[in-house]
Specification:
elongated; mainly alpha; 3-stranded antiparallel beta sheet
């Protein structure tokens, strides 16, 4: 799975068609191991694209599950720490919480960009003064 991109249902089906029967065993949750892995990968990929999403939309986006199953998977991933977020059951919304490292990385990038801009502005004003 590449660059946290969402794996489409047809891509999953194409991959599963190359698997042997024993690799397509259905687990207790009604999904194969591959479907479960792709589903969890897609949930993380969605968390990079959205700050919040309705479970109905999430189910459609994931393509292999309905809203109820998407909520169950999100709850499990949040509880085991593989995804940071919160569930609003009344509204049917999943809210993603960015990790502290991601926030720090974004702030550091912002700081570097502002510093670079100020340095360039200083150079331009020096050139203007010298003229």
């Amino acid at each position: 799975m590449y660059l946290n991109r969402i794996v489409q249902k047809r891509e999953l089906e194409q991959f599963e068609s190359s698997l042997a029967d024993h690799q397509k065993a259905i687990m207790a949750d009604g999904l194969t191991i591959v479907e479960r892995g792709v589903l969890e990968h897609n949930m993380v990929a969605v968390s990079h694209l959205y700050t919040s999403i309705y479970f109905t939309q999430l189910g459609e986006l994931l393509g292999v599950v309905d809203a109820m199953k998407a909520e169950k998977v999100a709850a499990k991933m949040i509880s085991d720490g593989s995804m940071s977020g919160s569930i609003d059951e009344v509204e049917g919304i999943l809210r993603f919480h960015p990790s502290k490292a991601k926030v720090e990385s974004t702030l550091l990038h912002w700081d570097e960009t502002i510093t670079s801009f100020c340095m360039q502005l200083n150079k331009v004003t020096d050139v203007v003064r010298a003229s």
